Amino acid sequence: MIIDFRLRPPVGGFLNTLMYSAGERRDGFTRTVGFEPSAAAQRQSMDLLLDEMDAAGVDRGVVVGRLAGVLGSVSNEDVRGIVAGRPERFIGAASIDPADRRKACQTISRAVEEGFRLINIEPGSYPVPMYADDRRLYPIYGHCEDIGVPVIMMVGGTAGPDLSYSDPIRTDRVLADFPGLNVVVAHGGWPWVNEILHLGFRRPNLWLSPDMYFSRMPGWEAYVKAADGFLSDRMLYASSFPFCPVQGYKEWFEQLPIREENLKKVMGGNARRLLGI
C-alpha cells in the first residue's frame, strides 16, 4: 500500500484556497521543482485525480484540513465529506482553532471519534500567527498526547509571515516538552534541512514529510540520505498535490537512490504504522 501523506483534492473548500484559486502561481512552483502540472489540478477534477492515483498505484491519500489566513481554510466538514465519499482512498486530518483551547480540545476529541486520524496545526498560518512553541498551543499538544493522536505541524516552506515561523529550535522545544506526542513535520522543516534532520536524530517522536520540498530544492539530497539511513523508519512520502502531480512525483520518487526495503517503508509502511492502519 502506497500512502500519499499530503494530498488536497480539487473539491469543496479546497477550491477556495490559494493552491487552486491562484493556479498560475501553483503551476509555476510545480515547474520550478521539475514537474509538469497535473491535469486534475488544472481542470479541478476529482475524477481525474482518482484516475491519476490509480495510474500511479497510490492507494490512499491523507486529506489535510486547515484554518489559515491568506492561504485559505478547509473545514473539518469538508474533509469528513471527502473521506466519507471514498473511505477506501482517503484519510482525514482535522484542523482546530487555537484561539479557544477548550473548544479546540473538544474539536480534537470529536474528530477522533468521527474517524479522523491526525490533527493539523499550522502555527504561523493562523489568522493571528503563532510560533510552534506558543504557550497557547501547549494545552492542545497535551490533549493530543493524552489521547494518542498524532499531529501534523507545518513548520517549513511558507509557514508564516517570515522565516522565523519555521525556526527548528521552536519545533525542538515542542518535541522535548511532549515526548509522547508523535509530530509529523510537514514541508520537511525546509529550508532548515540539516537542523530538522538533527532533530529527527535527536527526537524519536519526530516524523518527517518533506513532500514538495523533497524534489530538487536546495538540500534535498540530505533528505534522500536520511530516508535511506537513520530516518528510514520515520520518513513519510507525500506529493503535496496539487503542487506536485501524484503520478509524476511517484515515478520520480521511485528512482531515488533509496534501497527497496527502505522505499517500501517511506512510501507506505511508516504511515500505516503511525496511523495504526
Automatic annotation (TrEMBL):
The keyword Nucleus does not apply. Residues 39-277 form the Amidohydrolase-related domain. It comes from Achromobacter agilis. The keyword Cell membrane does not apply. GO terms for molecular function: carboxy-lyase activity; hydrolase activity. It comes from the Bacteria. Transmembrane segments: none annotated. Pfam families: Amidohydro_2. This is Amidohydrolase-related domain-containing protein.
